[in-house]
Structures are given as structure tokens and as C-alpha cells.
Amino acid sequence: xxxxxxxxxxxxxxxxxxxxxxxxxxxTASMGRRLSWATAVGIGPNVRSIxxxxxxxxxxxxxSEVELxxxxxxxxREREVHAVAASRVQSDGTGxxx
Length: 98
Description:
By secondary structure, the protein is mainly β. Helix content is 0%, strand content 42%. The chain has strands spanning 5-10, 17-18, 24-25, 36-43, 55-58, 64-68, 71-77, 81-85, 96-97. A seven-stranded antiparallel β-sheet has the order 6-7-1-4-5-8-9, with no helix packed on it. A two-stranded antiparallel ribbon has the order 2-3. The protein is globular, with a radius of gyration of 15 Å.
């Protein structure tokens, strides 16, 4: 990994989802601008606020996909990450760094 790049693996699939009220939302349903969670699996030497294993929130429309050893990953810049969820973050008890 070079510079400020973060390699992430998407959490879950792109299939159907279930709302908080239990309603099944099919994969073909059109969604507005929605951010996605992923797990960081590699970081560059200039990344300051993310470590391998952190969950990151990013915009899936602005992603670069890469396939390594038969698995699909997404390559981001650190500045494209909107939030980091990690147990080491003790800001207000949520575990989120926004």
C-alpha cells in the first residue's frame, strides 16, 4: 500500500436487506445516496487515523475495486472515509471517530 491508501473488504453482501422494523428490502430496490461500512485490511504508511481491522464508513459510488487472490476489495484514500468505528476510540462511548 502506498501513501494515504486504505484497502477495505465490504461487510456483508449486496443482496436484500432488512429494515429496523423487519421489512425485507430487495436488492433491486433503488436507494438514495447511502454510505457503506467495510473493514480495513491494509493501510499505507501515511494513514493516520485508521488501523487494520477498523470498520470504516465511505461512499460506495466513489470507489475503485480490485481483485486479489479471488476476493474483491475496495481501494480508498483516507480522506474519502467519513467515519471510523473502533474499540480504541473513547470519545463519547459510541466507538465512532467522525
